[in-house]
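REQUEST FORM: STRUCTURE PREDICTION
Request ID: SP-0412
Submitted by: Lab K.M.
Chain count: 1
Length (residues): 126
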Amino acid sequence: MTSATSFPTAASPLPHPEVGFDAVPHEVAEIAAEASKFYKALGDCTRLEILYLIATSTHSKVSANLLANTLNISAPTVTHHMKKLLAANLVTRKQCGKWAYFSIHSENAHLVSQIFETSDAATTVE
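STATUS: Completed
RESULT:
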């Protein structure tokens, strides 16, 4: 059986010679680093669950203790996940005495709401 499309093999040369690239501009590298933090933060189920709980809370702030109890995870695990969400500017932290409270970062509130609007639409049965 012959194929209409032929692909280069290791033995055959590529159709075009390798073209060199200039260095990635510093500004682009910074944007890429920020985007990487953002998407890595969203790439974990527990962090998405934390974001959902904070975003859908009837209170403006949610304590780390409440998150740990609700998700049945340890306080250090919540702290680990919150560091990633804070670094990605998805949440903000306010310390009140010995308690830490979190809310959705106003800069990315629209993105967080879009994530969960999409998931709500996907789970709605018509």
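NOTES: The chain has five helices and three strands.
Reviewed by: T.R.
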